[in-house]
Write a structure and sequence with these properties.
Elements (H helix, E strand, L loop, with lengths): L6 H33 L5 H18 L3 H13 L2 E5 L5 E2 L8 E5 L3 E6 H20 L3 H7 L1
Antiparallel strand pairs: 1-2, 1-4, 3-4
Helix pairs in contact: 1-2, 1-4, 2-3, 3-4
Length: 145
């Protein structure tokens, strides 16, 4: 027996659909990162760990668990921006596989904002807020996986 279609049911279905799309994009980012790490000679071990975090976040989010969105916040939060000093004294660069950069030139350095990571970070935060607000019981979440 199907529940009648109400505005609450449709909004719940729309949020769940968006959650699946975000989880799929996070899984894709993790798989691409692992592929780059295996193929490229100069890839660091940090890319492999970051990619494994993305795969964990994506699979948990796919199963509609709040831990997936928390892990996605950590994953996308780690590579929101990179910093490169002109004199090569300091540098921070930790990037995932999918990047879309916006370059900001400072007097002594360059900062590259990862617009894709910023958008996914905001979307993951919204999904975590929704997941906590809805507060589905664990047995319903486990049964739907």
């Amino acid at each position: 027996m199907t529940a009648p279609i109400t505005s609450d049911n449709t909004s719940h279905a729309q949020w769940a659909r968006v959650e699946r799309v975000l989880a799929g994009m996070t899984i894709l980012d993790g798989m691409l990162g692992l592929a780059i790490w295996m193929v490229a000679d100069s890839a660091s071990g940090a890319l492999a760990l970051l990619s494994l975090l993305a795969l964990f976040a994506g699979t948990q989010a796919w199963r509609r668990r709040p831990a997936g969105q928390l892990a996605a916040l950590g994953f996308y939060g780690l590579h929101l921006a990179t910093y490169h000093a002109f004199d090569f004294s300091r540098s921070y660069q930790l990037r995932g596989a999918l990047n879309l950069g916006a370059v900001i030139y400072l007097p002594n350095a360059v900062v590259v904002l990862n617009v894709f990571a910023i958008a996914m970070f905001a979307a993951s935060a919204a999904m975590l807020w929704w997941r906590v607000r809805v507060g589905e019981p664990l047995e319903h979440t486990a049964a739907s996986a």
